[in-house]
Amino acid sequence: MAGLVRGQPRQVLTGTQRLAVWGDPIDHSRSPQLHAAAYRVLGLEWQYGRRRVSEAEFAVAVASLDGTWRGLSITMPLKAEAHAAAAVRDGRAELSGAVNTLLLHPDGLRGFNTDIGGIVRSLAEQGVDTVEQARIVGAGATATSALVALGELGARQVEVVARRPAAVAPLQTLGERLGVRVVPVPFSAIRDEAVTVTIATLPGDAPVPDAAADVLAGAGGLLLDVVYGHWPTALASAWGRAGHPAVSGLGMLLHQALLQVRIFTSGDPDVPVDDESAVLAAMREAIMGD
Question: Has residue 5 been placed in a domain?
């Protein structure tokens, strides 16, 4: 059921409460460092861990959570399951069909998508706060959040470069809802049309032909590659050869986590936490300081 998700009174922020990130695989996740840094600054004695949970295990695992649990960060491949489990969802989760944040509430699970806000805020840090034409590389689950983010930034046309153009069909349907024209382009027919920003949503080890990467990079624009564990990626290297800026997904990770902290403390991703600049600085140091 769709609904505007609001409200978790601040006076409940006492005692030890439990949170975790779930996914499969999960050992690579840096969410525990991010959240621990935030709650340390906020003076909250909250425990944040990680747990490997498969799609088949998800429903039973959620049902087993007791009153000591406050919420969950959700990563692949569980975002569709989390979306289905949520009693109410925010607008971004409704549009994308993906939930990466679950807030436990007496009236049922509340689902949010903070990946979209993470992309928007990460691009803003790079000076990109409006987009007319853009490009997405890859047509998987993250591409959906990327498309919604670009729509929020004003994009009217987005090319989606994919190995199987047929895989772009769901994004075209979403684009119609957003008022964004989505154009599928196979890797073999990439155009050199300039765009403001390219968002790469491929896995870090995904092979990209050098010729295709160079054509994409030659079109210029900022590259936001959602990967951060395999850096530089093939696309980031191509952007470097072309002399154009490229940033990893660490900024997206940072900002989506900050929005999660807002949700876990207030129930609302639009309500800043106390001393948010210090919280963000501590979280940034936790993942970028090394």
Answer: no
Q: 219 pLDDT exceeds 80?
A: yes
110 within domain boundaries: yes
Cβ contact 152:126 at 8 Å: no
Q: What pLDDT does 8 receive?
A: 45
277 and 172 in a common domain: no
Q: Which of 45, 37, 42 is nearest to 16 (CA)?
A: 45
Question: Considering its fold, how many domains does the chain have in total?
Answer: 2
Q: Which residues are catalytic?
A: 79
Sheet with strand 222-225: strands edge to edge: 181-186, 157-162, 133-137, 197-200, 222-225, 246-247
Q: What is the pTM of this model?
A: 0.93
Distances in Å between the alpha carbon of 223 and those of 139, 212, 238?
16, 15, 10
E strand or H helix at 143, and its extent? helix 141-152
Residue 108 and residue 164 share a domain: no
pLDDT at position 141, please?
87
SS3 of 223, please?
strand
Per the structure, the complete domain to which residue 106 belongs is given by 10-114+253-288
